[in-house]
């Protein structure tokens, strides 16, 4: 059984994951309209993954005798004026999500809720991966700058990355 404190913290995280999904979806739609097919594919896929993260929490809260809260979401406020700005926002968002997960782990430990602590380890690993991916993308964008040819190649790399799962660094 979840404590009230643990339940409301997990419910907050349900909202954070849903907002992550919305952010990726907004970026996906923008990239699609701009003709960046690879970036769009990557973003649509990430959006689905974030929704899966949210659902995993919903199921967990309900399974542990709680009640998952499904709340209203804010419209993502994103700056699309450059790829660098866009991907910087994405990276910062993932860093913030990692902090939220760390806070949840703290609560689980302070409540001696070892089941939730164990459940959260999956999110801890997932965030390491997502932060790393966002950082690699950001570094690549830094290298490319505003070079159109570079962006074209980068978009192709993203397409391969999204369809094969091959590391974007390779
Ligand atoms: Fe849910 O992993 Fe990113 O935000």
UniProtKB/TrEMBL annotation:
InterPro entries: Ferritin, Ferritin-like, Ferritin-like_diiron, Ferritin-like_SF, Ferritin_DPS_dom, Ferritin_prok. Keywords: Cytoplasm, Iron, Iron storage, Metal-binding, Oxidoreductase. Coiled coil: none annotated. Its EC number is 1.16.3.2. Belongs to the ferritin family. Prokaryotic subfamily. This is Ferritin. Transmembrane segments: none annotated. It is found in: Cytoplasm. Fe cation binds at residues 17, 50, 53, 94, 127. The keyword Oxidoreductase applies. One of its GO terms (molecular function) is ferric iron binding. Residues 1-145 form the Ferritin-like diiron domain. The keyword Iron applies. Gene3D superfamilies: 1.20.1260.10. It catalyses: 4 Fe(2+) + O2 + 6 H2O = 4 iron(III) oxide-hydroxide + 12 H(+). GO terms for cellular component: cytosol. May alleviate iron toxicity in the presence of oxygen. Iron-storage protein. Pfam families: Ferritin. GO terms for biological process: intracellular iron ion homeostasis; iron ion transport. It comes from Flavobacterium beibuense.
């Amino acid at each position: 059984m979840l404590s009230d404190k643990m339940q409301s913290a997990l419910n907050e995280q349900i909202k954070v994951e849903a907002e992550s999904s919305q952010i990726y979806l907004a970026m996906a739609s923008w990239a699609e309209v701009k003709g960046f097919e690879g970036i769009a594919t990557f973003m649509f896929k990430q959006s689905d993954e974030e929704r899966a993260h949210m659902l995993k929490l919903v199921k967990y809260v309900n399974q542990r005798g709680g009640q998952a809260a499904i709340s209203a979401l804010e419209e993502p406020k994103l700056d699309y004026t450059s790829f660098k700005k866009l991907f910087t926002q994405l990276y910062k968002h993932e860093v913030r999500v990692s902090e939220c997960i760390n806070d949840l782990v703290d609560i689980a430990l302070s409540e001696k809720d070892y089941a939730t602590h164990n459940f959260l380890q999956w999110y801890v690993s997932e965030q390491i991966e997502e932060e790393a991916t966002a950082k690699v993308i950001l570094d690549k964008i830094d290298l490319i700058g505003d070079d159109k040819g570079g962006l074209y190649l980068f978009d192709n790399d993203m397409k391969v990355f999204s369809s094969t799962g091959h590391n974007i660094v390779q």
